[in-house]
Description:
The chain has 225 residues and is α+β, with helices and mostly antiparallel strands. It has helices spanning 8-11, 31-34, 38-45, 61-73, 84-103, 107-119, 130-139, 145-162, 168-181, 185-198; strands at residues 15-20, 25-30, 48-50, 53-56. Helices cover 52% and strands 8% of the residues. Helix 5 (84-103) runs antiparallel to helix 6 (107-119) and helix 8 (145-162) packs across helix 10.
Amino acid sequence: MITTDQSYSSLSTEIITIYVGHEKELYNVHAGILSQYPSLEMEVYSNAEFLNSFHLADCQPDVFGALLNWIYRKNLTAISTTDKKEAIRQARLYSYLYLYVEELDMQDLQNYIMDIFRARTTCPLEWFPTDVIGDIYDYTASDSQLRKYIVDVFVSRSCSWASGTAGSGGRIGMLMRDQSEAGNHQFVAECYGALAGMAQKSKSKNPNRKAKCLYHVHVNGKKCK
């Protein structure tokens, strides 16, 4: 299925071959479609192997496959609400896709991914495994909207635990310790800072229920329409 805004002329252009990852998984892409995304086009063409053949060695094949799915169909599969293992796999995939397209300055896709994260309002904390959190902090700037979101989600759930059953406070400490032992010290510091700030409030807010564009990347500081 091709969206109507992608003209027949783009789909009738030559097909280029892109090998992705160290195992060189093969993908075919229309040159005309690729040209609609200048930063991605530059990334591909700067990694030429042969005529119309390119190799993105540092990209993960499943990440690139998801990117192409969005480019051609403007769609990504919603994160599972019934299968926890699948939900974690998808969250991991979309986290790395976010990191990849952030480098390419593909803001529409960044915001689309964030909407997918937020739509899954019953997501478990394990949505963002410790190694993924570590990579998010390694490869994003301090003002990253993805950083802000994962901290807000953690803090929101921590507050609900603290006001819930006995022993919830110990659970919070255990999870913080797990993050520290994984080397995610900046994440832990930001969570404690956010918790301290919320301690003065009588009620915590679910980050998935705030204004839709709160965690979006905005061009020139302009909010979404």
